User: What shape does this take?
Amino acid sequence: MLSNGRGTVISIGSRNAAFDIPYTCAYSVAKTGLLKLHQNIEAEIGGRGVYSYYLQPGNVDTDILDRPGAVDETSLRHHEDVCHAIETVQRKAKRPSEFVAEACVMLITDADSRLLSGLYVDLDQDVNRILDDLRKGENGECAKRSLYKLKISSLQP
Assistant: This one.
């Protein structure tokens, strides 16, 4: 991609990279690492024609929790938090997978979407509003507050 001066990398992420969700350690670590990968790709090769997106699709209509072994039965019986988390996911409105596919097409074809490269693209939010803010450059809230990035906030000396 770099030798051609163009390309797009899209990974389907999860809100688990941004929020602490009990009993999802392995999944959360994998999704968090994936987000950091996209941030580092942008830091390393941003501006060279290759765009990198971490797409958090929200609740998509899949059978992931219905598969045998998807949820540890012992955890369900002994940890109320696990039951609550699963019930919450199952209860929430789900969007069709086509919605996520359309978002991927937008990231590839819409030039303004390049502003989202290396960021946490959250389909639960108004992406056009985020793009409007990113168009403001350093004057936008996204830049001022370093939004949609994995970071550790700390006290300043």
